[in-house]
Amino acid sequence: MSLLAGVVRRKPLLALAMALFGSTAVVAGSRGSVHESLAASYQGRFLSYLAVDLVLGFVVATCARRASIVAVVVSSTVQLLVIGGVSGGTT
Fold first, then answer.
1. Contact 55/87 with Cβ under 8 angstroms?
2. Which end of the chain is more exposed for a tag (fewer CB within 10 A), N or C?
């Protein structure tokens, strides 16, 4: 996380890509059983996307409008696809 904090101020788009890749690796790499889906640890896996959303907020606040829009679309799409794929479409 300290590496990410150092990169955010200098290269926010790179920091967003790093956070998104790392969070996706954590969520996709830690598949659990169906019975675990009711446990708090299942939802806890998705907390890694909180870092992505914080970096995304920084990107939107500091970068050009076009870069911000692309960052929001890419980040939202990846998060929705990964979370939907991991959860199996159940609510």
1. no
2. C
